[in-house]
Write a structure and sequence with these properties.
- The chain is built from 19 helices and 6 strands.
- By secondary structure, it is mostly helical.
- Among the domains are: 92 residues, no CATH class; 180 residues, no CATH class.
- The strands form 3 sheets. A two-stranded antiparallel sheet has the order 1-2.
- A hairpin with a 5-residue loop joins strand 1 and strand 2.
């Protein structure tokens, strides 16, 4: 692996040495870890010291996710979705299985512990597919038993750290999909724990500030530019209706509908998702805005990887003002568009789009910053590859890091928004969904 020298200023001498010696991909995993909460960062550093356990748990997940698909794969997709939604609440599933079948009044009482939007799915699975529900519960318990065996020899603190990481499956996938980088991270932490922690703390603060500024700029632009806001709303509606026929339009925030529980690591997220989505949410949340209780537009982030793939693949022709804003954003942030920004999913597609050469003319196309007509400029050294196609629910792009934070909105919506709007911005903890690896159908 080629070594890339990373020139970064930090207070810790070891942290400087660490960043000077790691590869480009290793610097990306450090940047990927930094935005999480202090507690989660510490858990990541602890479990990264035990790569053998991570590999064993990943193998367990591969078997359990395949077994889950074997159990539900013959059902229509809408029924499979009910199984996936139900699987997000294994404790409730276990209660239903222990209750036994054909006890609807008692089952309804148990299911009330789940979010409102999940309860009908759970009752349907209980009432009509009880045998499969029991089978899935058995699979989950077997996976948990395997976890206990793998971590039995570790201290209670380390075992608890593994539980925290698995409870955030996007984090677990980050480590297992990039196990060589996780090993390097663990070794660095063993060498100088204080230096690594100090560096991650500093990077967390810097990223939070940078991301807050990016969001503030975007919100201000939407508030002051009626054309930009109109196009953002229209594009969001078109995207949501095209990829989710049941999506509410206009999108109104409802904290209680889905809840914050992810799809369980042992079973993976639905295979039909075009990008990694461990935390289910209405498809329109990929747009980065919603309508508050008073009907006002609330912008909570840049769009996701899924939306960006659609927009830059086919939608941008119809929204020149929005396209122009994204072009300006790319020009300002191009030097750190991937490594040092929370909106990595959007950034990846924006970079690929704006940096590509038009194979017919040897030029990259963009919208001129002063006019809405198309113009062109030369981009020496760019490769003449085609612009991405829109996201497909039947395909999965598993290039490492490319849509990290494709699902970043868990941390920026469910945790920080109420029905009236956005509160607090970034707290340092978010769930991004790494691409590839242990998920769904195999």
């Amino acid at each position: 692996m080629a070594i890339a020298v990373v020139a970064l200023t930090c207070q810790s001498g070891f942290a400087q040495e660490l960043m000077d010696s790691v590869s480009l991909d290793e610097s990306k995993i450090v940047a990927a870890i930094a935005p999480y909460s202090d507690e989660m960062r510490q858990a990541i550093l602890d479990v990264a010291q035990y790569p053998q356990a991570l590999v064993k748990l990943a193998r367990t997940q591969a078997r359990s996710s395949q077994a889950f698909q074997d159990a539900v794969g013959d059902y229509p997709r809408d029924t499979q979705d009910k199984f996936y939604q139900t699987a997000r609440f294994p404790e409730i599933d276990s209660q239903l299985v222990k209750l036994g079948k054909d006890k609807k009044p008692q089952a309804e009482s148990i299911v009330k512990e789940a979010p409102d939007g999940v309860q009908p799915a759970m009752m349907d699975v209980y009432s009509n597919h009880f045998e499969q529900l029991a089978r899935i519960d058995k699979l989950y318990q077997a996976s948990q038993s395997a976890f206990d065996r793998v971590t039995a020899r570790y201290t209670p603190q380390i075992k608890d750290d593994f539980k925290k990481v698995i409870a955030s499956p996007d984090v677990m996938n980050l480590l297992t999909d990039n196990i060589d980088l996780a090993v390097s991270l663990g070794e660095s932490y063993k060498s100088d724990p204080k230096g690594v922690v100090a560096y991650l703390d500093s990077l967390n603060e810097r990223l939070n500030l940078q991301n807050a500024n990016v969001l503030a700029d975007y919100k201000k632009a939407v508030e002051t530019d009626p054309t930009l806001r109109d196009e953002m709303e229209k594009a969001g509606t078109e995207f949501a209706q095209q990829y989710d026929e049941q999506s509410d339009v206009p999108p109104v925030m409802n904290n209680n509908y889905y809840g914050s529980a992810p799809y369980p690591y042992w079973f993976g997220y639905p295979y039909w998702y075009g990008t990694a989505m461990w935390y289910p949410m209405p498809y329109y949340y990929n747009t980065g805005f919603y309508y508050g209780a008073n009907g006002g537009v609330v912008v909570f982030g840049l769009p996701s990887f899924a939306y960006a793939n659609w927009f830059f693949g086919s939608g941008y022709h119809r929204y020149p003002g929005l396209y122009r804003y994204y072009n300006n954003y790319y020009n300002v942030h191009r030097t750190n568009l991937i490594n040092n920004n929370v909106y990595r999913g959007f950034n990846t597609v924006a970079r690929d789009h704006f940096s590509h050469v038009d194979p017919m003319h040897g030029q990259a196309m963009r919208i001129d910053t002063d006019r809405t007509k198309s113009t062109s400029f030369s981009t020496p050294g760019s490769s003449g590859t085609a612009i991405r196609q829109p996201v497909s629910g039947r395909q999965f792009n598993n290039s490492n890091f490319s849509h990290y934070n494709a699902n970043a909105y868990h941390g920026m919506t469910w945790q920080h928004m109420q029905s009236g709007g956005f509160h607090g911005g970034m707290s340092g903890s978010f769930h991004g969904g790494m691409s590839g690896g242990m998920h769904g159908r195999r």
